[in-house]
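Is this the right way to post structure tokens for a design question? Let me know if I should format differently. Anyway, here goes:
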């Protein structure tokens, strides 16, 4: 059960929690009282682009494709030949995390879209890097 909004975590950590569950194609069961949740929590739980990763028709579960100390990259193949990619930072400070296309099993140039910011980043060749906040995630969708 998602613990988003039950206290004890920051909004950054709640986004990380939601991102990992969606990459794992887990059932999305909210464990909070939706009658009195903060707007920030509603925004996390109702992000349609992130939910689409969880409920992708291909039905594949994501896996960790790279790990360097407390930095991890997870990837999930999507219907239509794209991938969802999560860049995770378990450190106590901000860190740059890089997703290499070769770790994901793709090559060449791919369009990158940030699913939490709802913004297109552009085309990237061979990899994508982002500054990820402490205990945070950058969740993107890549496609040709």
């Amino acid at each position: 059960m998602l613990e988003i909004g039950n206290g004890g975590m920051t909004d950054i950590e709640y986004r990380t929690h939601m991102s990992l569950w969606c990459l794992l194609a887990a059932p999305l069961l909210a464990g909070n009282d939706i009658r009195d949740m903060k707007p920030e929590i509603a925004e996390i739980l109702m992000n349609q682009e992130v939910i689409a990763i969880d409920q992708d028709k291909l039905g594949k579960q994501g896996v960790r494709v790279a790990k360097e100390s407390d930095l991890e990259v997870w990837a999930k193949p999507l219907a239509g030949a794209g991938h969802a990619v999560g860049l995770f930072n378990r450190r106590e400070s901000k860190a740059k995390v890089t997703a290499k296309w070769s770790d994901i099993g793709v090559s060449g140039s791919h369009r990158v879209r940030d699913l939490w910011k709802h913004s297109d980043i552009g085309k990237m060749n061979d990899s994508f890097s982002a500054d990820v906040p402490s205990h945070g995630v950058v969740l993107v969708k890549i496609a040709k």
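Format looks fine. Someone answered above. Worth noting: The first helix runs from residue 11 to 23. The chain has a mean pLDDT of 96.
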